[in-house]
Amino acid sequence: MNNKQFSVTVRARGQITVPDNLRKKTFWLREGTPVTLIEGIEEIKITPLRIKEGDGLNWRKLWQQITLIRHFSGKKGNLSSFIASDRAGRI
Predict the structure, then answer these.
(1) Is the distance from CB of 82 to CB of 69 less than 8 angstroms?
(2) Are 40 and 65 in a shared domain?
């Protein structure tokens, strides 16, 4: 892999935005993709989460359930909207 360097700013709650041109070059880096963070002394490496056979979890079923829950609507709206508004109110 070509080790190009990209500079980004860490925002509230430790969030960063991966530059668009880097996301386009990386097939696995999409919204909703689970990733692994590997801690080094002066670096953090981001890799796609590798699903291991026999790890005891049915990852496909888990992600289907998470997707379903995100679309639930109650009397006051859906869960995703509630979480987004709650987070915005804490900044």
Answers:
(1) no
(2) no
- Name the β-bridge partners of 35: 48
Q: What is the pLDDT of residues 20-72, one digit of tens each?
A: 888 888 888 888 888 888 999 999 898 888 766 666 677 788 788 878 777 77
Number of structural domains (the chain) is: 2
Check residue 55 and give its pLDDT.
Answer: 65
Residue 88 has which token pair?
A: 């915005």
pTM higher than 0.70 for the full model?
no
Question: Domain for residue 44, yes or no?
Answer: yes
Inside any domain, residue 18: yes
Tokens representing residue 35 in the block: 């990733």
Full residue range of the structural domain in which residue 21 is found: 12-48
Pairwise CA distance, residues 44 & 73, whole Å: 37
Can you give the length of the chain in residues?
91
